[in-house]
Amino acid sequence: MAKPCPKEFRDDVVAVARKGQAPLAQIAKDFGISEGSLANWMKQADVEDAGGPV
């Protein structure tokens, strides 16, 4: 299993992805993560932003 990335890194990647200036696959590649990880991080960020359970 891969080492977890710091929350600050995840937040930065999600912020870039939310700008919508590039496909998620390209953003994931640029940051050296999988597209699945990015999708999961975005879902988790949506839950956190909505004030839902973490």
Please provide a written account of the structure.
Helix 1 (7-19) packs across helix 3. The chain starts with 6 loop residues before the first helix and ends in a 5-residue tail after the last helix. With 54 residues, it is mostly helical. It is built from 3 helices and no strands. GO terms for molecular function: DNA binding; transposase activity. InterPro entries: Homeodomain-like_sf (IPR009057), Transposase_8 (IPR002514). Pfam families: HTH_Tnp_1 (PF01527). This is Transposase. It comes from Promicromonospora thailandica.
What is the approximate shape?
globular
What is the SS-derived class? Answer: mainly alpha
* Amount of beta strand: under 5%
Largest sheet: none
Secondary structure layout plus pairing:
Blueprint: H1 7-19, H2 24-31, H3 35-49
Helix pairs in contact: 1-3, 2-3
Provide a compact summary of the structure.
With 54 residues, this protein is an all-alpha fold. The protein has helices at 7-19, 24-31, 35-49.
Note the main attributes of this structure.
54 residues; globular; single chain; 3 helices; mainly alpha
